[in-house]
């Protein structure tokens, strides 16, 4: 059986990581420059979000050639070099496979436009003379209808995301064969893992029926055929490679499906990302409305997903990524408890069961940038949402406030390397503004400080790798009030307990009930045996 719990994955958003040629955009050579830094942190794999050829309407998730590197990031030689240099440091590279859709600038789509029947069958095209009403009422994840009329097709094509991201027709076996070829190409190059973008929405039946909820998710999410497709591509490409790791991004998914996606016996994927715990600050499921986060529901979701997948599936555990605002700004309190809340959430992901994923900048406690004007935003989803809210007559100040909390750009600002110009990311003005707090929060000021967030992460990573109880042990939750998450991790000879206060209030708790042998983690200087301080994280080794 593959060991997955002692692997630590670092998600890297290359456009904002390091700019080596001073054009304002991060690049592959920039990543190579920083490999020693990543090795020092102690991670095993780097998931790099798409660096393939792309018009970048959705920051590279709109790929026009899966086997070519976008020149803004560098060349194929740079990729070969990256793979080799990473390997020298025992780091594998994981690539992002965006297979639900392809850019309308891809050869496949262009040939379809030119009239090729073969390539038209790569997409969901519905012929129609009605140019006003789409084939059905499904909506795009980025706002508006999930369809676009194309004169050259004399009909509509399906696009669940941006209009330039056309959904690929997985129903057509030739499409699946093409995608397998792409995977084999990268496997041959020495890539060690794939992250599959929104992979649970690939199973469209080809029949487009109006949805009662006027959204349509239930028609294309987690369809039974997705399991068949995953088994097929697993067998045809990565399935038999011993040390290869796959993770699927699952949109609005269910536990039952995630067990199937990630149970080794099913031979689909190694693990799953689900997002339910990152929606507890949505108001009635609506992202673009601010609401304080619901701790109780967060705790319930963490607990349920951990227990239900225990022995039956495998979670990728994470709280940050390139689509999510920074967790310390979001569920923590960066004004009063920046260090405590950043390290508290870190301790949660490094002591749960699953494979921990961290996102660039998280390891130094980077926060949301608190942009103040709409022209600071770059993200297509955020700009569409801004326009939609404005069209509804909402006050611009309120809209900007919502974006400053919820926008995906909150996590996409340049990596803060030092306190010099542009945070050391680039000599020229970056493609998106640097967060104003880079003088206080940056790598250089933390790397040699034993009490920094960075060194806290290093310590957690080491602890995780040295303790079987953490990477392989069972998990058992202990009842407590809503502000505390408490669980034991156990192997045959060792037992650890994590006591985590997810609130900004001190909570009474009898720590002495655990006969502890050692304090492994504490983000405060002291331990009070009768109470847990705001955002305090404790990991204790206890008598078994
Ligand atoms: C995933 C990506 C996101 C992208 C979307 C469409 O959710 O993480 O960044 O916009 O898929 O590809």
Largest sheet: spatial strand order: 13-12-11-5-2-1-15-14
Total helical segments:
17
For the record, give the distance between the C-alpha atoms at the N and C termini, rounded to a whole number.
27 Å
Identify every distinct bound molecule in the structure, by name, code or SMILES.
Answer: alpha-D-glucopyranose
CATH secondary-structure class of the largest domain: Alpha Beta
Number of strands: 22
Helix content: 25-40%
Whole-number mean pLDDT: 97
- How much is the radius of gyration in Å? 23 Å
Classification by helices and strands: alpha/beta
CATH topology of the largest domain: TIM Barrel
List key phrases describing it.
544 residues; alpha/beta; TIM Barrel; Oligo-1,6-glucosidase, domain 2; Immunoglobulin-like; 3 domains; eight-stranded parallel beta sheet; 22 strands; 29% helix; 17% strand; globular; binds alpha-D-glucopyranose
């Amino acid at each position: 059986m593959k060991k997955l719990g002692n692997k630590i994955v670092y998600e890297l958003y290359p456009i904002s990581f390091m700019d080596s040629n001073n054009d304002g955009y991060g690049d592959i050579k920039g990543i190579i420059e920083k490999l020693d830094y990543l090795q020092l942190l102690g991670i095993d794999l780097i998931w790099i979000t798409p660096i393939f050829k792309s018009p970048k309407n959705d920051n590279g998730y709109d790929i026009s050639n899966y086997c070519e590197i976008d020149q803004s990031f560098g060349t194929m030689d740079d990729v070969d070099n990256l793979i080799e240099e990473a390997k020298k440091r025992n780091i594998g590279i994981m690539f992002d496979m965006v297979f639900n859709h392809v850019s309308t600038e891809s050869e496949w789509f262009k040939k379809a436009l030119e009239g090729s029947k073969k390539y038209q069958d790569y997409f969901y095209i519905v012929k129609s003379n009605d140019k006003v009403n789409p084939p059905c009422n499904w909506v795009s994840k980025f706002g508006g209808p999930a369809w676009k009329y194309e004169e050259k097709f004399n009909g509509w094509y399906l696009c669940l995301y941006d209009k330039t991201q056309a959904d690929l027709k997985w129903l057509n076996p030739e499409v699946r064969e093409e995608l397998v070829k792409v995977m084999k190409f990268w496997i041959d190059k020495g890539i060690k893992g794939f992250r599959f973008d929104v992979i649970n929405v690939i199973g469209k039946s080809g029949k487009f029926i109006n949805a009662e909820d006027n959204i349509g998710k239930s028609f294309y999410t987690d369809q039974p055929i997705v399991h068949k497709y995953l088994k097929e591509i697993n067998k045809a490409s990565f399935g038999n490679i011993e040390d290869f790791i796959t993770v699927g991004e699952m949109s609005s998914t269910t536990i039952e499906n995630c067990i199937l996606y990630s149970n080794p016996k099913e031979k689909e994927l190694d693990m799953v990302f689900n997002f339910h715990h990152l929606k507890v600050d949505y108001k009635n499921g609506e992202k673009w409305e601010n609401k304080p986060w619901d701790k109780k529901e967060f705790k319930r979701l963490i607990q349920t997903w951990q227990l239900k997948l225990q022995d039956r599936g495998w979670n990728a555990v994470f709280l940050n990524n390139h689509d999510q605002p920074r967790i310390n700004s979001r569920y923590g309190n960066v004004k009063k408890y920046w260090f405590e809340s950043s390290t508290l959430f870190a301790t949660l992901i490094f002591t749960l069961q699953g494979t921990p994923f961290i996102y660039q900048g998280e390891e130094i406690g980077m926060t949301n940038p608190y942009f103040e004007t709409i022209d600071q935003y770059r993200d297509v989803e955020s700009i569409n949402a801004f326009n939609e809210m404005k069209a509804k007559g909402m006050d611009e100040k309120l809209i900007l406030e919502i974006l400053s909390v919820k926008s995906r750009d909150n996590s996409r600002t340049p990596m803060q390397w030092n306190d010099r110009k542009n945070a050391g990311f680039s000599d020229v003005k970056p493609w998106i503004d640097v967060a104003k707090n880079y003088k206080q929060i940056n790598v250089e000021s933390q790397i040699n400080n034993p009490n920094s967030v960075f060194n806290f992460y290093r310590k957690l990573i080491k602890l995780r790798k040295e303790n079987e109880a953490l990477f392989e042990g069972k998990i058992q939750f202990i009842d407590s009030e809503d502000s505390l998450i408490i669980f034991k991790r156990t192997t045959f000879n060792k037992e650890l307990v994590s006591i985590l206060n997810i609130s900004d209030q001190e909570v009474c708790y009898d720590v002495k009930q655990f006969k502890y042998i050692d304090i492994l983690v504490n983000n405060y200087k002291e331990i009070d045996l009768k109470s847990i301080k705001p955002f305090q994280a404790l990991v204790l080794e206890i008598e078994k």
